[in-house]
Amino acid sequence: MAKPGKRSRAAREAFADKANLSVEEAVKLIKTAASAKFDETLEIAMNLGVDPKHADQMVRGVVTLPNGTGKTVRVAVFARGAKADEAKAAGADIVGAEDLMELIQAGKIDFDRCIATPDMMPLVGRIGKILGPRNLMPNPKVGTVTMDVAAAVGNAKGGEVQFKVEKAGVIHAGVGKLSFAEEKLAENIRAFVGAVSRAKPTGAKGSYLRKVSLSSTMGPGVSVDLASATGN
User: Fold this and answer.
1) pLDDT tens digit string along 21-67?
2) Bigger pLDDT: 59 or 16?
3) In the 3-class helix/strand/coil scheme, how is the chain assigned residue by residue?
């Protein structure tokens, strides 16, 4: 068996001089070069022509990938009474109110998505400084502040991916596992790129989609032809 150093060197050589590939070519290259002992995530990075410091250039949204993420998503829900019961029945992993807030304040954040009913937001707001930096703060714009907690839980566990532009104008996300068939990964990529494209803010000037790159969790990245990524 090749040593890790040789495997990584071989992967870099496979990617040498590769750029602006079609989505299908990029996915095939990444899957072929992958050598980790676990099922790596296919990751997408999109460079956008926006400055998120300006409110009218913020890019944020949510998309349900047609073939899911392949990831087990743990969901926490702030709710009381009948809505708490609905959340539990829908498969939420943690449901509570003040008790859930106390767990989070104690640093016990064993979940990937946080949902809240509107009446819970004053309580959730008290831990915004903890949830916000982790991109876990419930937000009505992405459907995580809602009375329909059952649907929100189902979406979170069924392949829904949230995205938010970072300071440098970049969006990162996982769009599936390398064990997925190539065509399924390609469908997920185009669905994600399409959602980001539709989320173009009013303040964006000039070129909006500047670069799309793909990589595996442990592997090098490769740029993708924008026309192929958008399906044009």
Assistant:
1) 999 999 999 998 888 899 999 999 999 999 999 999 999 999 999 99
2) 59
3) CCCHHHHHHHHHHHHCCCCCECHHHHHHHHHHHCCCCCCCEEEEEEEECCCCCCHHHCCEEEEECCCCCCCCCCEEEECCHHHHHHHHHCCCCEEECHHHHHHHHCCCCCCCEEEECHHHHHHHHCCHHHHHHHCCCCCHHHCCECCCHHHHHHHHHCCEEEEECCCCCEEEEEEEECCCCHHHHHHHHHHHHHHHHHCCCCCCCCCCEEEEEEEECCCCEEEECHHHHHCC
